From TrEMBL:
Coiled coil: none annotated. Heterodimer of a catalytic subunit and an accessory subunit. Belongs to the queuine tRNA-ribosyltransferase family. QTRT2 subfamily. Keywords: Cytoplasm, Metal-binding, Transferase, tRNA processing, Zinc. The keyword NADP does not apply. It comes from Achlya hypogyna (Oomycete). GO terms for cellular component: cytoplasm. Gene3D superfamilies: Queuine tRNA-ribosyltransferase-like (3.20.20.105). Its cofactor is Zn(2+). This is Queuine tRNA-ribosyltransferase accessory subunit 2.
Amino acid sequence: MGCERRTSFLGVPTPCYIPATVAGNMPHLTPDNCAKLADLSLVGVNFGELFSSMAFLEQTKMDFKSYLHLPNECKVIFSITDVTNMPIARNTKTQTKSMRSFESSNGRKQITADEYMKAVNQYAPSSFLALADEVDPTFGYKRQQTAVETSIAWLDECIAARPADTPVLGVLVGGNEPRLRDISVKETVKRAIDGVAISGFGGGETQAFREATLLSYQTTVPAALPRLLLNIGQPLDVLASVGLGVDAFMSSYPLIVTKFAYALVFWTDNESTAEAMETTKINLRDKQYERDARPLLPGCSCFACARHSRAYINHLLNVHEMLADVLLYMHNMHHYYAFFAAIRASIANGTFERYRDEFTTKYTQ
């Protein structure tokens, strides 16, 4: 595939999907439902959602994962990037070179690198993204240049204060400016980091620019460093990015699909989805499903498909019952994980390019 392929990230087989929490929890899912997702082994937690809880956790000495209702074996990547609400930081009036603005449950707040690292040390995540000046990629050259310079300065502060043996990912910024992207990556990889997080995509850039940038990272990012791509989740975009060396994806794609009452039904080259449909997703609000006794995806082994029909979920949606979102999200997460499992299998078999091309010919987005 044109680059050396890493096989794991924080002990999780790659390429992998990393869901993001909402308000500090897995959206729609109770702890017992989380346990039904066998592949839920790594999640991204946005610090902004926990900002107002720091004092409570410090006073009670409550375990971080218990507070989040995550399985004990689940690993956590800590960041201040909200992939459920991208692009971020459109309003930069309160952003300075010493303080990062972010949205919390109590409104817009500011934090220094020192304060951020205090939180990292307090919560002890499995890994964390360095504090970075992530702004809307459509902002002008001077603002993007400031973002690059500030992010490098904050990275140095984060590395100096990092907990022992906790991997840190440097964040690559630069917006839609190739020269600034190049400066960002070259300065970032000079530091003692354990991987890179690629920020600033998914906000309206052209596919050609995104793929050209990822291609350039194949030579500028050392082969040993894992690459985490933020906010890219569409299946065709995932396949293209995997082909360009990306190891992990943190996005809200299954959550967004669920929000609009869709169920993922695309082919994954997996026996459990042998009856996948000609489209990537179906809208369960559609009247055509009100008497459809089939599961969301025939052959799928997820909790929702094993127990409920399209007609039942159509009914739940039409009466605004929250169980509809629970069942849809469980299915969509299960199916999306199966998609990544199929990608890993194709890489292991040496057939990734064929799999990517076959998938691409089947679907348009």
